[in-house]
Design a protein that fits this description.
single chain; 8 helices; two-stranded antiparallel sheet; about 15% strand; about 300 residues; alpha/beta
Length: about 300
């Protein structure tokens, strides 16, 4: 089992205001964990800069230009109450897109069975024409379209276990039966979407969890809603929107998962990737704001990816 890791120093240069939870230290914490000897088999690659044209897979050109024009020459500019850009934010998010698309290329070429992309800013809240929730562009959605456009994937599944619902991904694919979007998330919570009745054209599977939920309820949601949907869909590729803010230490939510839960969920998705998509699985970092909870959870996730 070959697991590839994409990262890049530019991801540290997307700056947010002092005290903001989505901060460069998140990646530094992940880097420290993955420097352990047990991760030495990882195939570590410097993330490539993305092709700007691929933004248009998920977003209209006028929106891409709006984000580009918002990038300041110095300082930090807020787009909304949660989301900001700094001078290197364009380069960071384009490199995150480049890494996500390269990861798709890797699994279709067979040079890796699965890939973890340690990037920031995150992406799953970015709707077709709205940047929000710390996110500028939707990397998972762009990567799904890249799989379809470049590699002829007929069906792509995106599984999102971030504690916040991926409203952006749902918005982009709400009427597209070629992409299955499955999400576990706390509700009610930002951004306010993700109810069970939001089903798109039968391709949206939401499994909202109440505050205080722990391992048992999370795993039951996977077993009763997420995995059966994957079994019925039989995807050619699985993309994980891998947020780790459902960890019990995280300050932004009240779901009480442990790193063992992320290990378990990773294994279940790898089982489906083996059955349906020749092991093709791409995992993209989303949320996770307690540094210990994030780094330990990523460590467990990547270790499972490596084990096969």
């Amino acid at each position: 089992m070959v697991t590839r890791l994409y990262s890049h120093p530019i991801f540290l240069e997307h700056l947010t205001p002092i005290g903001h939870p989505e901060r460069p230290d998140r990646l530094r914490a992940i880097e420290r964990v993955l420097d352990d000897e047990i991760y030495s088999p990882l195939d570590r690659i410097v993330a490539p800069f993305g092709d700007e044209a691929t933004i248009l897979y998920a977003h209209p050109e006028r929106f891409a230009e709006k984000i580009r024009k918002a990038i300041p020459d110095d300082g930090i500019v807020t787009i909304d109450g949660d989301t900001s850009v700094s001078p290197k934010s364009w380069d960071a998010t384009l490199t995150a897109i480049g890494a996500a698309n390269a990861a798709v290329d890797d699994v279709f070429a067979g040079v890796a069975d699965n890939v973890f992309v340690a990037s920031r800013p995150p992406g799953h809240h970015a709707e077709k024409e709205t940047a929000m929730g710390f996110c500028l562009f939707n990397h998972a959605a762009i990567a799904a379209r890249h799989a379809q456009n470049r590699h002829g994937a007929e069906k792509v599944a995106i599984v999102d276990w971030d504690v916040h619902h991926g409203n952006g991904t749902q918005d982009i694919f709400y009427e597209d039966p070629s992409v299955l979007y499955c999400s576990t998330h706390q509700m009610p919570l930002f951004p306010g979407t993700g109810a069970k009745h939001e089903t798109g054209v039968g391709n949206i599977i939401n499994a909202p969890l109440t505050a205080g939920t722990g391992s048992d309820i999370f795993r039951e949601a996977f077993l009763s809603r997420i995995l059966p949907a994957l079994d019925n869909f039989r995807p050619d590729l699985i993309i994980i929107s891998a947020g780790f803010d459902a960890h019990h230490r995280d300050p932004l939510a009240e779901i009480n998962l442990t790193e063992e839960d992320f290990d378990w969920a990773t294994g279940k998705l790898m089982d489906r990737a083996e059955r349906f998509s020749s092991n093709r699985l791409v995992s993209l970092l989303e949320g996770g704001y307690d540094l210990q909870g994030l780094s330990f959870s990523v460590g467990a996730h990547v270790k499972r990816l490596m084990k096969g």
